[in-house]
Design brief:
Metal Transport, Frataxin, Chain A
């Protein structure tokens, strides 16, 4: 999955971009206390990282 597609899915779930640090986008959710980091721009996100992000977001 491309990082741009993943970011769109994450934003649909209520995560909001709070800052960009280099090539990493950091998102927060209003109901959760954790921070989600997605490398961007990246053509393909590796399977392990993708699964971890999907689990954290609830996809």
């Amino acid at each position: 999955m491309r990082s741009a597609d993943l970011i769109k899915e994450v934003e649909k779930k209520g995560w909001v971009l709070v800052r960009i640090n280099g090539s990493h986008h950091h998102f927060k959710h209003s109901e959760r206390n954790d921070l989600l980091t997605i490398p961007h721009p990246k053509q393909e996100i590796k399977v392990g990282l993708l699964r971890k992000i999907q689990k954290q977001v609830g996809l």
